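forwarding from the other thread:

> can someone predict this with pyridoxal-5'-phosphate?

sure thing
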Amino acid sequence: MKPISKVVLETPASGIRRFFDIVSQMQDVVSLGVGEPDFDTPWRVTEACIYSLERGKTHYTSNYGTIELRTGISDYLRAREGLEYNPENQILITVGVSEGMDLAMRAILNPGDEVIMPEPCFVAYKPCISFAGGVPVPVCSYMEDGFAVKPEQIEAAVTPKTKAIWISYPTNPTGGVASRETLEKIVQIAVKHDLYIISDEIYDRLTYDGKHTCVPTLAGAYDRTIFLNGFSKAYAMTGWRIGYACGAPNVIEAMMKIHQYTMMCAPIMAQVAALEAIKNGYEDSEAMIEQYSQRRRVMVKGLNDAGLECISPGGAFYAFPSVKSTGLTSDEFSERLLFEEKVAVVPGGAFGECGEGHIRCSYATSIEKIEIAIERIARFVSKLK
Ligand SMILES: Cc1ncc(COP(=O)(O)O)c(C=O)c1O
């Protein structure tokens, strides 16, 4: 047989999955590894879907998604951020933010185009860029800067081949948040070099200290930003696979063209559920966010007390402590912690080279489990001294 695609062959499988295949074979493991809410989807959302299924809503929708959901998203963004996206041609309903990322890359990139992306970042960014024929250009962000990238580093990475800057604050895996000033500078770099901005704001609602800065609201950003968001995190809807992309009509139309031929539409039942979430689910999600905020304090204090330096993450539901003081690499630390103390975390190197020396600890799990995990981590770290 002839070989499969070179780009696919050269892309490593996700470091997270490999690790969790091992975890799934073990017993009594406390997992801080998962990147999804431990809460069930709010019942009103599930019920709205069941009700619609009982009424025979099981068909294709418009390729863009139902006009009801697009209008609901448009109203929500106007009320929350003062943003105006026309539901007719500036909003595309996608199969999770994951599909939105893939569509964005395929819609704007020509072979060899470069995309600047701060690391550590979500594991799918690099493959998405490569699968679309682009070249990922990682720039490091550091703990001492709260894991916000320095705009100067982005500027230094710009070449004549740069097509886009891909940012995501709050960030997976660090929980880092960029200040409004930093984001304004990044937008100005994009304006100066005429670049697209991809802004994945899936964790926007999970911002704990102060107000989230929504990138397309910044001066100069609106026309050049592909704004990605979804329901997985804030509404505990990971399995529904539903998200959305907003942007300039020509870009959204290009993304829709790919979506039309490859996906047709997002599942109608998930669209019905998402509409209920965005219209009536705000308080349910606020209650979950309040829980994450409490867990964050327990996690960060516990990790620091255990001897792992950890800054308080401004958003998402991850802490990203340094394990450098232990002398172990993040792979070694994570593997030994799993086998010796049965706590699962994700090695920071899975999120890009500059994640090395850190581990990702998700606090999307109960306080009781976090406390058990912290006790075990403290015991493990003290053994290493
Ligand atoms: C930063 C980021 N973007 C996108 C996604 C994917 O989200 P979805 O479930 O909407 O596809 C994740 C999931 O962990 C994420 O962390």
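The mean pLDDT is 96. thats all i got for now
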